[in-house]
DNA sequence: CGACTTTGACCGGCGC
DNA sequence: GCGCCGGTCAAAGTCG
């Protein structure tokens, strides 16, 4: 890898992939570390998806994500946390290897929208925590290069104990 | 009966 | 000033 980043190499000839890749560009910074020769699944040589592995990933949040779900299938975790200055909300992006996008992270989500984004051939799904008073939102999108991977972006902190 | 999902339309913000 | 994209809300329908 020298100049052909999967992102650049995969960049559509269309115009409008510079500003739209804002978060993707950030993500790519994290994702790229696995695109070339760095796979997080260090020992995925025999990782059967069946085992319920909750995508529990508490970056540094105040234990907001006290998840303890029951898993939704395969889950290879890899994410990036970013604190929004000026806002106490937290944005956390994950890339999870899963056949399903409905990963049970210990919370219940209600889909409130679906949108086709230009950066991805796949639609983006918008979920919201069903718990009253919980401002947490979740954005789920399939990876462009690996449809088997799901990019989940959490926004906000849960104001209620997890585990339903 | 209740809860959740799905589709479409509308609005706002940003960029050119 | 106009156009484009993203994001959210609302209503209806379906399933458990």
TrEMBL record:
Residues 98-163 form the WRKY domain. InterPro entries: WRKY_dom, WRKY_dom_sf, WRKY_plant. SMART domains: WRKY (SM00774). Residues 47-57 have a biased composition (Pro residues). PROSITE patterns: WRKY. SUPFAM superfamilies: WRKY DNA-binding domain. Keywords: DNA-binding, Nucleus, Transcription, Transcription regulation. Its main location: nucleus. It is found in: Nucleus. Residues 14-23 have a biased composition (Polar residues). It holds the Pfam family WRKY. This is WRKY Transcription Factor.
């Amino acid at each position: 890898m020298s100049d052909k980043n999967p992102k650049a190499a995969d960049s559509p000839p269309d115009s409008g992939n510079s500003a739209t890749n804002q978060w993707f560009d950030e993500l790519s910074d994290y994702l790229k570390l696995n695109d070339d020769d760095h796979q997080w699944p260090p020992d995925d040589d025999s990782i059967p998806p069946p085992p319920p592995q909750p995508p529990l990933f508490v970056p540094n949040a105040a234990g907001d994500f006290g998840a303890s779900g029951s898993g939704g299938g395969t889950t290879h975790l890899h994410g990036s946390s970013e604190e929004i200055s000026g806002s106490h909300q937290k944005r956390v992006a994950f890339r999870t290897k899963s056949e399903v996008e409905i990963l049970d992270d210990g919370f219940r989500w209600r889909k409130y929208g679906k949108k086709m984004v230009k950066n991805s051939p796949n639609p983006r799904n918008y979920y919201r925590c069903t718990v009253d008073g919980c401002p947490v939102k979740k954005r789920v999108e399939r990876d462009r290069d690996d449809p088997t991977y799901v990019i989940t972006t959490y926004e906000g902190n849960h104001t209620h104990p997890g585990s339903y």
